[in-house]
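FAQ: What does a ligand-bound record look like?

Like this one, built around magnesium ion:
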Amino acid sequence: MKTIVKKIADNFGNQNQEIITAGKIIKEGGLVAFPTETVYGLGADALNPTASRKIYAAKGRPSDNPLIIHIADIKDLENIALHIPVNARQLAEKFWPGPLTMIFEKREIVPKETTGGLDTVAVRMPAHPVALGLIRAAGGYIAAPSANTSGKPSPTLAEHVAQDLNGRIPMILDGGAVQIGIESTIVDFSGEIPMILRPGYITLDMIQKVIGEIQMDPGLGMEDPSAPPKAPGMKYKHYAPKAELILIDGEQDKVQKKINHLLKEAIISGKTPGVIGTKESCNGYRWGIVKSIGTRSDEDTIARHLYQILREFDQQNVDVIYSESFSTPGLGQAVMNRMLKAAGHQVIKV
Ligand code: TXA
Ligand code: MG
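The answer part, i.e. the structure of the complex:
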């Protein structure tokens, strides 16, 4: 299959031909990759079981890992979800369109092929104009996981989608670089107390301010890596770079000293090491391939470049990557959740 890549200009109009064509492909049961504000998604008609199955095949995704349904209008939530509590409506009012996914009991109309066999459904209204345009053109309900091959970092550029899925899907809509760079926050409303199953740009604190009571899934393994996560997708070894990734955590000057020491040792033993540092620290590394992920004065920049950097290291065939750690109470939670998984929880404390 030939994959067509179409650039969508920032100021695209209501009747954009590429988006209409993409919507038609999805309506007819095909797949289209498209930009959202978090990462690129791989879309199919969420209400068509055959179309959903194609997503799993194209990504090599385990069939028990459910998909998120993307909508373009808050009122469409009622058509696919049951028992929507008041606090979930408050979050939708506050954060939709945006990087927040919520889980509810599903309605009959949603096929189990889309929900990985579950009776619950994950729903998100994305904030990207191309995504919203495509959802409307496709009939209102697009099931979309991140548009990477299963196990690879999520795509933050259309080029990343092409690296993974070229020849496997008919169309990629190219909306340039995404804004956020890590996947949406997932909040489960199907239990007694709302629970964060995946941290993201919308933090625990931001949610607490709107609805009060909210829990973090203990299975996220931020403290105990052996606890099983509640979101099926969070149990797979995701975001894994080809090289071994090791996080160094502690005071900045000690971290830098330790990484320089490890770099030297790696080189002596014949390895090609890489470093993930920041604009502030990169000059201090003396060996290896050094990359700046962003600046500590703006943690958004760190989230935005994480996956791109992991992909770049894959292409440069490094053997081991040493990374500074980026745990802050805000977005740092989400960044560290992804980094700990990519590192298989290998952390050196200094
Ligand atoms: O930002 C995002 O959420 C992106 C963009 C494309 O919207 N999408 C995304 O989808 O990250 P995906 O499939 O890569 O991740 C969805 C996660 C998986 O961990 C999956 O297990 C979980 O959501 N999930 C989906 N439906 C669920 C459900 N009913 N119950 C529990 N977890 C669910
Ligand atoms: Mg994914």
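Follow-up question: can I read anything off the structure? Yes, for example: The chain is about 30% helix and 20% strand.
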